[in-house]
Design goal:
nine-stranded mixed β-sheet; alpha+beta; globular; binds zinc ion; 31 strands; 35 helices
């Protein structure tokens, strides 16, 4: 994977425990966090020396810093009473060319190692482990390999595979061809077919840069730091990738993947000693210290600002075709290893750009010069010296000078006027919430939070002590009220190291790209003798043979199905009512936060208004309410809550495939002390939302449309799946309307409409139907101590909004009621839409898109969650993905990813991601079905698929999200347990059986969709609908 980190404010989140785990902990004499405090500086443990032991109460952890004596490897352990343990190792990888060598290396080390020589141990471990996370990233200046798991034995297994992969990889020539690049006959079995470039990273990077936002971000970094490693593309410039040789790859490994250039991080409640021992014995003891010379020198400062211009492909889905330029100004800031400076500048950046009260939002977004901020905006601390960027996308060429002027004028204004105290408080409040909010994968957030600064020898422990930075910040402001303004003056106004980068569409962009690739290809081909060509053909066949070979994975460690917990822990909830509305209360260790949700159904909403629901959801909390205009509302939300949002929901029924619930979900959180404020804000939204400000609405519509259009090249497979499922179930049609390509096109139309008056008239109509307590149910997750307060506040809220309660008739008559509590059949219920006479229809849709890769999907109507065959279909999807489709679609086909998935909606979907192939991938799906029907898989394959499915089923759930399956979908713990037992019971016979009955040709009811570039095969085939 190739990652560009662009986050305005790094999110730090805490994980804690559900009641049950806490109990287990009480039985132990001492917690992991307390135990770690007993380490002493200078203490020697398994070849390491302890350097520092620091309690970090904010994050409920103890940090232990160590160094490895022989090699100088650095180590940070965060001891915390969290069973989701994480390991990560990162290397400073600072390439000096754009061949993508660190990225290709990241892929190839995962293709087999000394102790685990089988091909692709990384992907195989996905099926032999209960990992909660496994991945690898290439950033601009480091490469990181993290995994997490809740099982101690699994941790050792994965650690062993990871250590061997990064320190002792095979790096075979064949791995380099497969993952990096190669010349190969287009059809490898036909020596007369033309030679083309292939390779996983080659295709991945073509996909990455088909996304204009990513392209822009890459250019900006390259040009702002033109003198060292940031001037090149660490992920690989597609046309530079074919300049890389296998020898260079091995050399890069030898010099960069060395303990002397490594930083290890572990997190969780497992003992540090055993990690150190295993790392020492399996890897570090075999190395001597080297001087890796991978440091990044400071970027020499420019004497005067610079400007640059780049081009991109036009975006057919952009809201306004005449406005497709991006312009932004980027400033070089200070070294990120200065923790306090980094904290101050990222805070300052949020003050300047985030939310409707920020000066740049007012100056750039509200005049509607562009559709949204540029893709790169705000503080970026992912490079050794940070940067700040500000600008617009979706703007007209002729506004260039105007935008530049506004940017410098706004900076002047900020220096003159400073910031309101309340906004600073709101931001510090947000940091407090982020520290208290407990999310899953906390270890990974920590690893990412410290990665960049630590990579350049910053102090990771200092970065964890966030409240130190907060108090230092408060102190600095107190001593000097102009503290922030002075920063703005020196870092922005007086900073001559700044770049103005413009990007504009070029009609011929894709053609030029294709020509450049063709030229590169011909250059390579011209150098080939006949013997070379013969060799290429033979190597192509060898690779194909290797990819088709049955793999012996027996060298790899594995958990057994018997290592999986047979039962799930029960999440107790209490049912109550408030003002006649049913409420689910769930007591959780939420660390002082209260989480509120309300589900309101759409059943009375006229059908023609449904397409407006996502728009309604995205604006209803952003246009002002009660006595507050939208700025004041945003300020209050920031000051009093952890955010308030509304989203549309299509919830499939667990027992009947043609039944579903349609609604919107309200969600918000707050610190306990702010409960009355949070509900007051919701009351105002229910009672008197402001919808009449057309200017404000236009800004919001433009931003949503832009966001949707930008998301397609990233999540094209989701759009393909949604489209392919459209005619398979009644819920599928609604899903497409609310979240599919239909919605993207609708929003594009809205953004182009000169007059939004009809929308302004529509929104209050929708509100009457949706924000109606008659159609509502609520859920609260809070600590036991705060539950009764929360209930009382909710009661007050329901009283306040009682006037909105109105009994209305559903637009469809086919409504069924399901009790919220299955044990209380006459109690409160949910209303679901049912269409027992629904006729699925088979349809193939092609969307021509302005990017060079495809997203392919085929979806098949099967059975809902509670059906006897659902569990077999889940295991089947996983097994087909791991044992067949991955090989066909990724290894042979060159797509970035692909597989099969069983969805809760009862639809079984095949998909591919960033795929050079289109219709050929559909045949791969069909071959997968034949493979499954043939039953040519072993018990081991079935067990591996079970492990993989269970690692998803058992992935940790944050306290804020406990009980949500029951609240939203009516899926109780008993139903989950029954599903679990069915999963355990799946065997080879049931898999062959469901493959035959649901997936085979003649049996299946399916839909197909492809998003991709112009496609002659499809154009000629009348069975396709072209969009
Ligand atoms: Zn990658």
């Amino acid at each position: 994977m190739f990652r560009q980190t662009k986050t305005a404010l790094q999110k730090l989140r805490c994980v804690r425990f559900n009641g049950q785990q806490q109990q287990t902990w009480r039985l132990k004499s001492i917690s992991a966090r307390e135990k770690a405090l007993q380490y002493q500086p200078e203490q020697k443990i398994h070849g390491f020396t302890v350097r520092e032991v620091v309690a970090v109460p904010d994050l409920c952890l103890t940090a232990v810093k160590l160094t490895h004596d022989k090699t100088g490897a650095q180590y940070l352990h965060a001891a915390r009473d969290d069973s989701d343990n994480l390991f990560s190792v990162q290397f400073r990888t600072t390439p000096m060319d754009s061949t993508g060598v660190p990225h290709i290396l990241e892929h190839t080390v995962l293709c087999g190692s000394e102790k685990y020589p089988c091909r692709d141990p990384f992907f195989k471990m996905l099926n032999r482990s209960l990992s909660t996370f496994m991945n690898a990233f290439t950033a601009s200046d480091f490469t990181m390999y993290p995994f997490s798991t809740q099982n101690g034995k699994d941790f050792q297994n994965l650690l062993s595979v990871y250590l061997d992969a990064v320190f002792f990889p095979c790096l075979r020539e064949q791995d380099f061809w497969q993952e990096g690049w190669r010349l190969e006959n287009e059809n490898p079995t036909d020596p007369s077919s033309s030679l083309v470039f292939k390779g996983v990273v080659f295709n991945e990077m073509k996909g990455v840069f088909s996304d204009n936002e990513r392209l822009y971000a890459q250019h900006l970094q390259n040009k702002l730091y033109p003198d060292h490693t940031y001037a090149v593309v660490s992920g690989g410039e597609p046309l530079a990738i074919p300049d890389l040789t296998w020898e260079q790859l091995k050399q890069f490994h030898a010099t960069h993947y060395h303990p002397s250039n490594a930083r290890f991080f572990t997190y969780g409640d497992l003992p540090l000693e055993s990690h150190l021992q295993q790392i020492q014995e399996e890897a570090l003891c075999k190395f001597e210290r080297i001087n890796p010379s991978t440091a990044v020198p400071p970027q020499p400062h420019w004497d005067s600002p610079r400007e640059a211009h780049v081009t991109c492909s036009p975006d057919a889905l952009a809201p306004d075709q005449s406005k497709q330029n991006t312009l932004c100004v980027s400033y070089l800031l200070g070294d990120i290893t200065d923790t306090f400076e980094g904290f101050t500048l990222s805070l300052l950046s949020s003050l300047m750009v985030s939310g409707p009260n920020s000066p740049f939002y007012k100056a750039l977004i509200e005049p509607k010069i562009g559709s949204d901020f540029s893709s790169v905006v705000g503080y970026d601390g992912s490079t050794k010296e940070a940067s700040f960027s500000i600008g617009l996308q979706g703007m007209a060429e002729e506004d260039t000078e105007r935008v530049k002027h506004i940017i410098s004028q706004t900076i002047e204004d900020v220096i003159k006027n400073g910031f309101e105290e309340e906004r600073i408080e709101a931001l510090l409040h947000r940091i407090e919430i982020q520290m208290k909010h407990q999310s899953t994968n906390f270890g990974l957030s920590l690893a990412s939070h410290v990665a960049s600064s630590w990579n350049h020898n910053g102090d990771p422990v200092e970065l964890l002590n966030i409240s130190d930075s907060v108090s230092k910040f408060r102190q600095a402001l107190k001593e000097n009220p102009c503290f922030l303004q002075e920063k703005v003056k020196s870092f922005f106004k007086d900073n001559t190291h700044r770049l103005t980068l413009k990007m504009s569409p070029d009609e011929a962009y894709l053609k030029k790209q294709a020509e450049a690739e063709e030229k590169k290809l011909q250059e390579k081909i011209q150098l080939l003798t006949d013997a070379d060509k013969k060799e290429i053909y033979e190597k192509g066949l060898e690779l194909l043979a290797a990819q088709s070979q049955v793999q012996d994975a027996s060298s790899l460690p594995a958990l057994q199905v018997s290592d999986i917990e047979p039962t799930i822990p029960i999440t107790p909830v209490q049912m109550g009512t408030a003002g006649g509305v049913p409420v689910q209360y769930c007591e959780q260790p939420t660390n002082g936060l209260v989480y509120f949700r309300a589900m309101c159904n759409l059943n009375t909403l006229p059908e023609d208004l449904r397409v407006y629901v996502p728009l309604f959801c995205s604006v209803v909390t952003k246009m002002g309410c009660g006595a507050l205009d939208y700025r004041q509302q945003a300020q209050q939300m920031e000051l009093r809550t952890g955010g308030m949002s509304v989203s549309s929901q299509v919830v499939p029924d667990s027992t009947q495939i043609d039944t579903f619930e349609q609604g919107v979900l309200l969600f918000s959180s707050c610190l306990e002390r702010n409960l009355p404020h949070m509900f007051q804000l919701w009351s105002d939204i229910f009672n008197s939302p402001h919808f009449d400000d057309e200017e404000r609405l236009r800004v919001l519509v433009m931003m949503s449309a832009q966001e949707l259009a930008n998301g397609i090249s990233y999540s094209g497979h989701m759009y393909a799946v949604t489209r392919a499922s459209r005619h398979l179930t009644p819920a599928g049609g609604l899903q497409e309307t609310l979240g599919g390509m239909e919605q993207v096109k609708f929003m594009k139309r809205m953004a182009e409409t000169p007059d939004l008056v009809h929308v302004i008239r529509t929104l209050p109509r929708i509100k009457k139907h949706l924000l109606n307590p008659d159609n509502m149910r609520c859920a609260i997750n809070a600590t036991p101590q705060k539950m009764s307060d929360s209930a009382a506040e909710l009661e007050t809220f329901m009283k306040d909004v009682a006037e909105n309660k109105k009994e209305r008739k559903p637009v469809r008559t086919s409504i069924i009621k399901k009790p919220l509590d299955p044990l209380e059949v006459s109690g409160p219920s949910r209303s679901l839409i049912t269409e027992p006479d629904f006729q699925p229809c088979q349809m193939k849709t092609f969307f021509q898109m302005p990017f060079p890769v495809n997203f392919v999907s085929e979806c098949i109507r099967t059975v809902p969650f509670c059906h006897q065959d659902f569990a077999s279909l889940c295991i089947l999807a996983r097994m087909m993905t791991a044992k067949f489709l991955h090989g066909e679609i990724r290894e042979k086909g060159g797509a970035y990813g692909g597989g099969a998935k069983m969805g809760g909606s009862g639809v079984f979907s095949f998909y591919s991601y960033r795929d050079p192939n289109s219709v050929q991938t559909l045949s791969a799906f069909h071959k997968g079905v034949e493979w499954a029907k043939s039953g040519q898989f072993s018990q081991q394959d079935v067990d591996e698929a079970k492990l993989s499915v269970f690692s998803a089923v058992d992935s940790p759930v944050a306290p804020s999200d406990k009980g949500m399956g029951r609240f939203l979908s009516g899926i109780t713990d008993e139903m989950k347990q029954s599903h679990r037992e069915k999963l355990f019971a799946v065997d080879q016979k049931s898999l062959v059986d469901v493959a035959e009955r649901y997936l085979s040709a003649g049996q299946r009811t399916c839909g197909v969709a492809i998003l991709g570039p112009e496609n002659d095969t499809i154009k000629k085939d009348p069975s396709w609908i072209l969009k």
